[in-house]
Design a protein that fits this description.
Length: about 260
C-alpha cells in the first residue's frame, strides 16, 4: 500500500509541477488581445485569434465526421456483431488505430489527401483529427452499449418493437451519458494534437477560414512559437498552452461528471 501511495503521489506531483509551470509562464500573457488579434510577426504585439478559430473549426469538423462513424461501428460491435469473426477483426483494427501514434495518422492523410490535392489544407487537418476521433468513440460506444441490460432490449422486443427501434430508443437512451463522455474524451484527445496538423493543415500566419487552404491551429502555433528565439513568441506559446490545458481540463471534468451521473443512476 505504501508503494502504491508513493507512486500515486509521485505521478500527481509531476502533474502539479506542470500546471504550476504553465500558470507561472502563461498567465502573464493572458489578455483580451490574445483572443482578438492575429498571430504577430516577431517583435510585434498580437494574439492567437486565427489559431484558436482555425483549430476549433478543424476540431468541430473532425468530431462531426468521426463521431457518427465511431457510433455506428460501436453499435455494430455491441448490437449485431458481438462474437462474429468480422467483429473480432474490427475490434483488433480499432485497437491498433487507438494506440497508433498521431504522427502516423498525419502521414496517412498526407499521402491520401495532401499529395493528390497538391497543397496543405484545413479539410485535410480535419480529416486527420476525424481518424483520431473514430477509435475512441467506437470503443466507448461499444462498452457503454454492452453495459445496457439485455432485459431492456427483450422487454422492448416483446412489445413488437423492431431491432432498430430498440437500439435507437432503448439502448442509446440508456447508454447516452457514457457515449457523450466518450465523445468529450475524443475532443479532449484531439484538442492538443500537433503532429497530424503539421502534415496536413501546415499552419497560416493570417486569418483564414478557407478549408481548401493552409489553416492555423493552436497546437501548431505553440510548436512553432516555442521553438523560436523570440521572447514575445515564446510568451504567446506558453499562453496558448495554458488555454489548451484548461480547455482539456474542463472537458475532462464534464466527462467525469457525466460518467458519475450515469453511475449514480
Amino acid at each position: 500500500m505504501a508503494l502504491s501511495l508513493g507512486a500515486a503521489i509521485f505521478g500527481i506531483l509531476w502533474l502539479v509541477l506542470i500546471l504550476v509551470g504553465l500558470l507561472y509562464k502563461g498567465i502573464s500573457g493572458l489578455s483580451l488581445e490574445v483572443f482578438t488579434e492575429m498571430t504577430p510577426p516577431p517583435g510585434s504585439a498580437g494574439g492567437l485569434l486565427n489559431a484558436i478559430v482555425g483549430g476549433l473549426l478543424m476540431q468541430v469538423i473532425g468530431v462531426l465526421v468521426g463521431t457518427p462513424v465511431g457510433m455506428l461501428a460501436g453499435t455494430y460491435l455491441a448490437e449485431y456483431g458481438r462474437h462474429t469473426r468480422l467483429a473480432t477483426i474490427v475490434r483488433f483494427i480499432n485497437d491498433i488505430l487507438l494506440s497508433a501514434p498521431s504522427i502516423v495518422v498525419g502521414l496517412f492523410i498526407y499521402e491520401l489527401m495532401v499529395v493528390p490535392m497538391g497543397h496543405f489544407s484545413g479539410i485535410a487537418g480535419a480529416m486527420a483529427l476525424a481518424v483520431i476521433v473514430v477509435p475512441v468513440v467506437v470503443r466507448t460506444t461499444e462498452n457503454m452499449l454492452l453495459l445496457v441490460p439485455n432485459q431492456l432490449r427483450e422487454a422492448a422486443s416483446a412489445l413488437g418493437a423492431p431491432r432498430w427501434f430498440v437500439i435507437s430508443k432503448v439502448a442509446y437512451r440508456a447508454a447516452k451519458a457514457g457515449i457523450i463522455t466518450g465523445i468529450l474524451l475524443a475532443i479532449a484527445r484531439i484538442a492538443g494534437e500537433t503532429a497530424p496538423l503539421l502534415f496536413t493543415a501546415l499552419g497560416n500566419q493570417f486569418w483564414s477560414v478557407d478549408l481548401n487552404a493552409p489553416m492555423a491551429s493552436l497546437p501548431q502555433v505553440i510548436f512553432q512559437f516555442a521553438l523560436s528565439p523570440y521572447e514575445d513568441w515564446q510568451r504567446l506559446a506558453w499562453t496558448g498552452a495554458l488555454i489548451i490545458t484548461f480547455a482539456v481540463l474542463a472537458l475532462s471534468i464534464i466527462a467525469r461528471t457525466l460518467a458519475n451521473t450515469r453511475t449514480d443512476r
